[in-house]
Amino acid sequence: xxLQLDEYAYLNTPLHRWDPRYxxxxxxxxxxAFSFVHSLHLLPAMMVVSGALYTVSCLPLSFLLARLRLPGxxxxxxxxxxxxxxxxxxxxxxxPVAVKQEGCLDLLLISVKFLCILTLGIILFGTTSFLTxxxxxRALGLPSILADMVLFSYRYLYDIGDKLKTMxxxxxxxxxxxxxxxxxxTLASLAGTILVRSYEQSDRVxxxxxxxxxxxxxxxxxxxxxxxxxxCPRDLAGLLVFIAVAVLFVVAEIYLP
Length: 257
Fold this sequence. Notes:
Structural class: mainly alpha
Protein name: Cobalt ABC transporter, permease protein CbiQ
Strand order of the largest sheet: 1-2
Keywords: Cell membrane, Membrane, Transmembrane, Transmembrane helix
Pfam families: CbiQ (PF02361)
Helix content: 55-70%
Subcellular location: Cell membrane
Transmembrane segments: 21-40, 46-66, 73-95, 107-127, 236-256
Strand content: under 5%
């Protein structure tokens, strides 16, 4: 199975070698610190930190851009709405419509925070295999049922996507184009078929897991082994550096005008 988010997890960089538990904790602390920032003066520092970490990860730039494409539609909607409807101070006019200063600044803040936090998330899950990340979550205390739900949701998103592409190809071969309102009913039937097939497959997978001892003492899905991860002082030092950077952002946010 080839998972798209961790296709470069095999690289050998300090971030790839970092213990997944410390890496998960460090990146989450930094992400929360970024989300706490509201001062425009800290945006360049956030971009520098995110860019430096992405450079260290050695992930291709195309990898980042491809995964920013869909979330970028959210920014596009914000760019359309905020400059025109947020604030009172007019910067300039586009015909009869005023572009507001407060809206532009809000758009800048939201865009930079959004891109920096998303970049950190991509680095976090792009430098570790997704299965290892889930094991690290369980080692940090995430209930096993939630960890399994995360893993299966991620796994079967791609499986459902493959089925959807197969069905779309079959529909196109039969002359379906989907360019008018009459095709809404067909698309609704397609979504319903995908939903029913996904439910049936999840039921089959669950029954197969139960037969193999899932959820029982000594069976599969009990929890990670104690020797699953081996941390060293370097891993702890990396976590302390991330905590120090996060604290600097929080303190600067509190004391900057």
